[in-house]
Amino acid sequence: MDYVYGPGKNHLFVPGPVNIPEPSGTGAWESALTNTLSPGDRTVSFLIGQFSLLWIDQQQRLNFNVDVVESEWGQGANLDILAEKLAADHSHTIKAICIVHNETATGVTNNLATVRKLLDHYRHPALLLVDGVSSICALDFRMDEWGVDVALTGSQKALSLPTGLGIVCASPKALEASKSAKSVRVFFDWNDYLKFYKLGTFWPYTPSIQLLYGLRAAVDLIFEEGLDNVIARHTRMGKATRLAVEAWGLKNCTQKEEWYSDTVTAVLVPPYIDSAEIVKRAWKRYNMSLGLGLNKVAGKVFRIGHLGNLNELQLLGCLAGVEMILKDVGYPVKLGSGVAAACAYLQNNIPMIPSRI
């Protein structure tokens, strides 16, 4: 489809810059894996949606021995099975646990603190590798407290930058593992970056200067607002969106409250509606971008992303637009119902802006 400018602001409410926003995170995935593991190493990885599926595919193509723990899409990682595997692994053949913190395809957030508790309980030395692409700087994420060994994110999510930067943070344990990992790596080799950092030039290749300056500004803005306040804002918008979905009489793709995501909500539609039509109508008539359902939930869900440089009044505009679209495609929504539910919650929960008190 050719891009044609529409008057006014494009109301971008996908959980990333495009309908399938994984490119910036893919290199970070590969960096995390190839710097800490050797071909044939056993990993335990959880398949709960499209992006965890893609990371598993990458692990398999990089010749790791991937022990896949699959759950129904809409459920979180099955940590009971992880406990069983750790308990049985007396010889410590599992070298890494690979888990997506927030699965944007289904709106599921996994409990990383529990993963760490299991590793500690069984005194298992496996590395904990975490895809935080759609969680870091939006959801509560505690690398040190949860003993995360490699955390990665992308510039196009909560940092509100264009796609293009994969950001990787490694623990001392992961850096030590990188000294003996035998996976082939060149562009993503941590040693090159560390060497040039120590030399004071910071980057072994031509960097994207504009994105790095943008990253500096984005981080400054996050700390100006306060990271706790950023997380609380995302919590409010996630709750408001779920209340709107409930008021519309629709269901969340995420099957339990404990897995609800505060950065993206995947909304199930009735069988007589193709969710792709909702996304098309949003773009064609209302100049709004919503997320498609991917893979197993294609045609069954549409996704509302509520993360990044976004405030509550912008979200309410999105919810109003979704109501009109639902009406357009034949769903008997009561106009204003979801917006009213979200407003009732937000009006009692939005704090004063500290700098304006």
UniProtKB/TrEMBL annotation:
Substrate binds at R303. Its cofactor is pyridoxal 5'-phosphate. Residues 33-250 form the Aminotransferase class V domain. Keywords: Aminotransferase, Pyridoxal phosphate, Transferase. SUPFAM superfamilies: PLP-dependent transferases (SSF53383). One of its GO terms (cellular component) is peroxisome. The modification N6-(pyridoxal phosphate)lysine is found at K157. Its EC number is 2.6.1.44. The keyword Glycoprotein does not apply. PROSITE patterns: AA_TRANSFER_CLASS_5. GO terms for biological process: glycine biosynthetic process, by transamination of glyoxylate. GO terms for molecular function: alanine-glyoxylate transaminase activity; L-serine-pyruvate transaminase activity. It holds the Pfam family Aminotran_5. InterPro entries: Aminotrans_V_dom (IPR000192), Aminotrans_V_PyrdxlP_BS (IPR020578), PyrdxlP-dep_Trfase (IPR015424), PyrdxlP-dep_Trfase_major (IPR015421), PyrdxlP-dep_Trfase_small (IPR015422), SP_NH2Trfase/AEP_transaminase (IPR024169). Belongs to the class-V pyridoxal-phosphate-dependent aminotransferase family. This is alanine--glyoxylate transaminase. It comes from Gossypium davidsonii (Davidson's cotton).
